[in-house]
Specification:
Helix content is 35%, strand content 21%. It contains ten helices and 15 strands. The strands form four sheets. An eight-stranded mixed β-sheet has the order 8-9-5-10-4-11-12-15, sandwiched between helices. It has a three-stranded mixed β-sheet with strand order 1-2-3, with helices on one face. The longest helix is centred in the last third of the chain and has 24 residues. Bound molecules: adenosine-5'-triphosphate and magnesium ion (MG). Magnesium ion binds next to helix 3.
Amino acid sequence: MASAPSMEQIEKVLDQFRDPETGRSVRQQGQVHNVQLEGDRLRLTLALTTHSRLLWEDMRRELEQLLRKEVPGLQQVEIQLAEHHRPPIRQGQVGVPAKSVIAVGSGKGGVGKSTVAAALATGLARAGSKVGLLDADVYGPSIPHLLGVNQRPAVEENRIQPILADGLKVMSMGFLVPRGEAVVWRGPMLHGALMQFLRDTQWEELDYLIIDMPPGTGDVALSLSQLLPLTGAVVVCTPQDVALIDAEKAIAMFRKVNIPLLGMVENMSYFICPECNTRHELFGHGGAQARAQELGVPFLGEVPLNVGIRIRGDSGQLAQCWEDPQLAEVFQRLCYRLVQEVAARVRQGPEPPLPQLTVL
Ligand SMILES: Nc1ncnc2c1ncn2[C@@H]1O[C@H](COP(=O)(O)OP(=O)(O)OP(=O)(O)O)[C@@H](O)[C@H]1O
Ligand SMILES: [Mg+2]
């Protein structure tokens, strides 16, 4: 007969179980509370951060399975979830208080970078994470247009107050330059503007800073990589062969400036006829996914060509896409896959050392 479960066995499991945000032991970071072992019944509270909000249920399931596997006599395992607050550490020379900084880019224009960046940002915020969205497309900022905001940000004590929209903190050159006016930048000015946006914006505490990149050249990616450590990049492509070649260029560009690739998203991937509900794959199916695999980049998912996305985006109501159950499911999946990728990187590597705390 198996001996009764012991507290030592349980603590050993909790010591091994890694937090999805930091990759360090949940027990050693004070994220396990109220552990009660009565005979073969275990109850405990696992506290996780808003950074990993989309993975909370996965973590509960994973911990339960691990406990049942490693502690054979356990009959009943009850895990409550609670929130653990861990402030971000300031990142890079610009001191951005964000836990993950994610750039959304592509090799060519018009493939839906801004749309996907806004979908990811609003999705993470809806899930309960603290999210900032920085429009780094200083030449053709489109985030204000997509989210329907264009007021000028206030400046208080030399700090720019980001605009609050759809649960996000948004910053864009579009707030500063009247619509229709052109901005001409030289390389150093562009770098300076990005630095100012990152450094002087009052972001407060962020779990994610999503950066919508301009199309094409690597100037902005290079500047960003110098200003702060990026968690990684998401590359958006469309299914046509030509666009895939451009996506490969974007992947090569991010690799050159040492920005890890978190994943590829295929936008305008298929079309579902609103009349007959038939799925049409205008440019074939699976091209981007297969290419992503060949290139060693995770594939995050496909977004349909959908008139609702276009109409809502062009009327400043992109966030309304979340009211459409089909689109909500597509966007939700992208956000989940992204957060999974971010977590996999910290949880699969060697356990990182405790950071030097510069608490805000
Ligand atoms: N899945 C989609 N279905 C329908 N329309 C879409 C979709 N994705 C984007 N669009 C539309 O395509 C146009 C371009 O999208 P978006 O501005 O997001 O692209 P971009 O890659 O950021 O462009 P740029 O290179 O100019 O920054 C917009 O009108 C947008 O509404
Ligand atoms: Mg754009």
